[in-house]
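Sequence in, structure out.
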Amino acid sequence: MRVLYRRAAVRVAAAAGAGMLAAGLTAAAGPARAEAAAARVLAAGRGGATVSGTWGTAQEIPGTAGLNAGGFAAVTSVSCATAGNCSAAGYYVDSAGDQQVFVVTQANGAWGTAVKVPGLTSLDNSGIPVVTSVSCGSAGNCSAGGFYSDSGSSQAFVVTQANGIWGKAKRVPGTATLNAGGGARVTSVSCGAAGDCSAGGTYRDSAGLFQAFVVTQANGIWGKAAKVPGTASLNAGGRAAVNSVSCASAGNCTAGGNYDHIGSFTQAFVVTQTNGIWGKAKEVPGMAALNVGGDAAVNSVSCGSAGNCTAGGHYQGGPSGNQAFVVTQVNGIWGKAEEVPGIAALNVGGDAAVSSVSCATAGNCSAGGFYLTAIGGSGNLQAFVVTRVNGTWGTAQEVPGMAGLAPFGGQVTSVSCAAANRCSAGGQYGDSADNLQAFVVTES
């Protein structure tokens, strides 16, 4: 059974209809079921804190019992500024059968009550808004982004929390002009400090072409969205998107995504912001040689410090199929992309990708994703992790314990590292009854 997100879920620009879920979500029943199950794996016990590396007991998110009258809810993003101080965002279906989005905050280890995102009701008239990403610069100071529908057109929004209070959602400034074709959405948000964040996504211009955008918040004020510099010449095929953003500090961020170079030939790009100024996007170095089949994207970016980042994703290697790659930036300079070490031996079926990367410090990162165990219908997607220590990548391995746990395969969907070699990953797997289940695994 080949469940899970797959690469199509990451390439947001190819599916920007207002009714579809974006990065981190898909419209397929499988991932939605897994997310719904994961919605209850948010907090531990009453307080929700993890003590001495031990996971507590899952609980239903406070307040969602009243909100989720329609019985379909999920967390789509979580961010923690410090231990026990986090925010989460997701969606639920209300008593009228409409999809709504919520935010919920944890303070000093205790989860508060989930609330509908303020201000979104006046913006959205479709009943299917989505929060795709949340990031916290400090405790109680977070930003989130996503999309909603305005008379059938998909619009991008951001919403900011200051000192524990969520403000009103607003259309991303500048997208009213950019998004003439009505296909905008925020796909990723990252905060380098409280009130200093960057977000990225995609929009559809007046010619009906999908373009990638970035937008920066400084001192709590969102500036105007702009087409990612340099993508005008790269994106000849008109399908570009930012898939991931990471900010090491205020005004120092990196983003990655994909664009169509010629026709349906999709290529991966990275772009760096330094002291608040975005540079020009560039094709991921080394990707021209790797991506001979023309299907590449950066799916995840993480920065251990300003100018020291790692990105991961996938490319089409011709007869060898789809492969997972990583690429590293050192002191502001991007090296060459490389196939994830060891993935060739695992990826017999030729369908692999890095889904998530996290760097605790410069040169110390972990990544996870999936690979296909066999050619044809006999293969399942399986979860892998790989670790970089002091600038050197180790060998990818199947997530320990997954072989016995997941006869129908699995994948890592998110990785987070609090310190070098101290990471956790989560994802989903198909159990012996062919049901989708959620899992977590910790590196220590």
